[in-house]
Amino acid sequence: MVGLSVGEKHFIQGGIAQDLRSDGRKRLTYRPISVETGVLAQANGSARVKLGGTDVIASVKAELGRPNHLYPDKGKVSIYVDCSPTAAPMFEGRGGEELSAELSAALQRCLLGGRSGAGAGINLSALIVVEGKMCWDLYIDGLVVSSDGNLLDALGAAIKAALSNTGIPKVNVAVGASADEEPEVDISDEEFLQFDTSGVPVIVTLTKVGRHYIADATLEEESQMSSALSVSVDRHGHICGMMKRGGAGLDPSVILDMISVSKHVSDQLIAKLDSEISAAEVDEAES
Amino acid sequence: MEFVSPEGLRLDGRRPMEMRQIRGEVGAVSKADGSAIFEMGNTKVIAAVYGPREVQNRGQQMSDQALVRCEYSMANFSTGDRMRKPKGDRRSIEISLVIRQTMEACIMTHLMPRSQIDIFVQVLQADGGTRSACINAATLALADAGIPMRDLVTSCSAGYLNSTPLLDLNYIEDSAGGPDVTVGILSKLDKVTLLQMDAKLPMDIFENVMQLAVEGCKAIANYIREVLLENTKQLEHRRGI
Amino acid sequence: MLQSKSFVRKTKQGKVLKVVREHYLRDDIYCGASICKVCDTKVARLSSSASTILVLDTNVVLNQIDLLENPAIDDVVVLSVVLDEVKNKNLSVYNRLRALCSNTLRKFFVFSNEHHKDTYVKAMVGESPNDRNDRAIRVATNWYQRHLGGGTRVLLITNDKENKRKATDEGIFAETVETYVKSLGQPNLLDLVVHPTSEDVGMEDVEDLRPSKRKVIYIEHKPMSEITAGLHRGIYHQGKLRVNRYNPFEAYVGSESIGDEIIIQGRGNMNRAFDGDVVAVELLPKEQWHEGKSLSIADDEDEEEEDVHLVPNSADDAPRNRDTIQDSSSTVNPVSCRPSGRVVGIIKRNWQSYCGSLEPMPMPAGNGGIAHALFVSKDRRIPKIRIQTRQLGNLLDKRIIVTVDSWDCLSRYPSGHYVRTIGEIGDRDTETKVVLIENDINSRPFSTQVLACLPPLPWSVSTEDLMNPNRQDLRQLRVFSVDPPGCRDIDDALHCTALPDGNFEVGVHIADVTNFVHSGTPLDDEASQRGTSVYLVERRIDMLPKPLTEDICSLRSDVERLAFSVIWVMTPEAEIISTRYTKSVIKSSAVMSYVEAQARMDDSRLMDPLTTDLRNLNTLAKIMRQRRIDRGALTLASAEVKFQIDTETHDPLDIGMYQIREANQMIEEFMLAANVSVAEKILKHFSMCSLLRRHPSPTKEMLEPLLRTAAAIGLDLDVSSSKALADSLDRAVGDDPYFNKLIRILATRCMPQAVYFCSGDLTPPEFHHYGLASPLYTHFTSPIRRYADVIVHRLLAAALGIYKLPTIFQDRPQLTSIADNLNYRHRNAQMASWASVELHTLIFFRKRPTDTEARIVKIRANGFIVFVPKYGIEGPVYLTPKGEKGGDWVVDEEHQKVKKMDGSISYSVLQMVQIHMEVVEPQPNRPKLQLTLM
After folding, report:
1. Which of A247, B33, C215, C500 is the most buried (most CB within 10 A)?
2. Does the pLDDT of residue C333 top 70, yes or no?
């Protein structure tokens, strides 16, 4: 982990208290964010998001599968995150597993909603090919290439960008197949089903350091946190998911306060992200 | 199957002696001491170097030279068919070992006793020749980290299909089941540090195929030198020298 | 070098994969015109004088390949996009097009437009692959026009109306095939043009000029999607359709899903499928099984009659046994369990070119010289084909080649087009050519590349050969050869030396062909393709060029030759004590014919060393033969005939059964032994890639006709094993001296064919050779005329460590495909030999009506099939005139008898009858041999 001297710790905490962080940001300002889409040709959709020194890649792969019999009208989405050792030597071997699992769970909670798929940021019904028989399974893989704090927000942004970059092949189902058989399908070579990603939320993590909370913490700042709250918020300002990390307890009123602040921050983040994504798409189309 | 048309073009339009488009970029991972991205066609890998630094596991410390460690991993999405494999499967371990041995041979480890150098390579996309791409990326990353090296190690593969030696096999050509010769060389010293081959090949043909791979390595070495030179110029520029 | 990426998606095992491939675009792809100033002209193929350069659309290549092969069409640019499309749609057309492109006499140039930076086009959104390819063709054509400038006209040939219109809109010269060919002013070329079907060009339907007569004759084929779904659900069954060689109205589809053959009765159920097509079949309801005849739409003009033919030599050639007499009397016959079906769709066509002639017809009046004629293939399995011609008068008495183009459900016959003329019907040269073409035999002279691989002539054994430590000098041995008279390709010789301890050293020396034919050379490739030499009555088509076949490799007498030897030490009881294999140098001291060798052995006055060697060998051979028979080897009989040919006219002078002597059997015995020894050796060293020969056991079904005949005459045959069969054949002796031979001949035709295979493809129990009762067998002894032996020589040399094994042996699929090709070539060579004998039989009897004795081998409703031992032929004898069914004859199937109603006369199987043989011409130019009862 980050080894910091007492002086450094004080410097960080003091900066936050005075709303002037070590890198010159205010408490609720994000680092510069850059988005690159279509970075992985083999995936159905992909994006690379850099948030300061944090660098993550997300890929979306679609496979044909069978819907869960409890929810025959919904497709399936799974999210896995992997922390590459390139990001930090501590992720070497199985070292990154714990963090990977934590991030995967957090992302699933923030983006997918409950088991039934209700409240998911992604419209799972759009993934159905033949109700009860065939659907698209989306495999979302995140890879942390470089880690400098606030991985969750970066991954959330990368997944959002990757989903908007995703094209799903159109499927023509042969007619006439009777009820108890596997449907015969013909996968089209070119027609893509574009995703509506307007409902996909962004994740805003507010990290509490000392008495204040900050957005987009760096690795050094995270080492000083007492607790953190991640809130996923969609375009309409609705909260889609939430989770609190860190051991120290929070006063419920502070939590409500943090939620409203994160809603506010999310507006800016969504706007920024949207413009970055569309710029990236233009870039990709041109190259 | 026909891998080289009578017109002398491979499936992707290359001629037998041509390499795929290569691209190298230094400094992809900001937190690392040295890092690089290296692409050979659709094969894309990231390498990050941490060190020289204190040895983590005291028992491994060596008083006369640096400890070099390497880990190779493939991203879940790196292949066409998505896979979810546990880390540290046999293939990864073997490739890690190959990369470590190859890089160790060129790092001047005796200058950094009691220290440790970690090389991490991550495959983002695999389309044949990942071993070679990893070694090339690692070389760039080590140079970026400023670690003293005897020479640049570069690697390239060559194969033999339709009775023709082919440079730098892509995935389709690699899966044809023909021989695949991967060579790593120290370009200036003109020494072979890595040589692997699967499948059978008569001696005389092997010579040609290996020679072709060596030529490929040299071309990559020239390219890597250019990338490093360009990077140094940029640094110069930024520092206003 | 620019780069761009093409995105392809693919499904595999139902999984959807996004496949990404790189696609490099280049600036070093040249146009191939020798007049071009910009491009590198080293590879140029298009002539400098060409005023017009043709660019072909895919549909033109697919449909008009016969036209393209005509030298009148030249200066053609073949785009890689077209090549790829053709390759996907029809591999045989692709191979023909590739052959044209590599033929140095033709000016076909392949332009890799897909990798050229200026002609590559990316699919636009919503554009189908087809439209994209059409656009690519137009872009490339346009590029050529601009590239070459106005001095040359670049003409797009397409029959696709839409593509032509777009091309014209874009300012590209474009024409249909027809208009282009017409502009060449060679009316005969027009016969080669395939007439486009109505979808492509809005021409009026030219196929049948009497629209009122058009009615649906066949059931519409199901669309592909329905077929796939049906196959998936098990309603339809997929398999290759094989038409009965002797009854073209009956076909079989081997279906894996049913695990049995499905019988397809009648052309209606065959629903336009050709022999070799991969079809989808639907089973008929059980009650319709095996009463198919009534369903058939066999019309009177198609009435089939059997021809006189050679006696078949294995079950694969023999007519199917069932239902020959069923339609007359077998109402009591219980419903057979063999499933019947009908074709619902064709998955893959196997249309080829066919040899035959036009059905005689009067010259039509008027009609601008265009006539519609029906083509009758020599291959009876092929239906008649409707063609259009402008040269009817010229073609009526010719053998011609015709290709099939289409068959819609409104026409009784498929339509096709004339390809070329072979020659006059009945002419021996023409008919021989037909035999060669029909059996896909390459009789072209060897190319210069192949001949360049030959050693310089005159060749003789060099000191290097003698110094070679791997080559033993055996010139001091008394080696000799025994072959048929006039044999010039001598590939085997023997020696036999009595050792002081009473044992014998016996050597089999085989021509060392692989010393001259090296793996991977053009010579080797050619030999591998030809597979075997073909022996026709009046000529031989060699597998290897003549200098090798008749001189350098041939083990002639009194010259030193290289050999590959198998040498045994044997006890006087013919037990092998030791075996060794070596390359050697020999000098044959005598070349004998079988007759000569036999005469020497029989002449008790002769005591010279050579004769003694022969006698010793013969003694050993007899013991070996007996031991083999005791093990269960079958002594089968075939009715081989021998012609005596007039050296001037090449017409047959005499004809007779080939006589087998002890000398033949002696040579055969040692060749068998050598083959077995070699098979053991190579399999020991290369268990996965040896080329062996196996002979599968006959199935119950194959033996059925033999058992039926045997039962009818009260003979009890035990077919449980080869040993049992051999023993019961030995016991089958009647009062008639010819009886046993006849039964053996009948047994022979029930046997399956022996085949080559790669040892890695099967398990050891399957290696068994039934006929020879040997667990292992291969071919080693005739490398001059069989390619299998060449491969085995290489294997043996590698097993001895003399040479490295060529790389090809590491490639098992390739080895399997070589074995398959050898089997195919072997069989074709055999068929060609028979056809040649049949042809000469016909020529022989043309001037010589003959009376002879014959044996009844099968009973028919209106007669019987007889076998004529003297001439080795078989044919029908009719008791009632054709057309009158049955008459007053009654068939007794159980006893294989046909009786007159009043019981006055009866004929039963195996009975001897006197017949009259005569060549008749029921139709002009269609001579045939007729057998009548005397």
Report:
1. B33
2. no
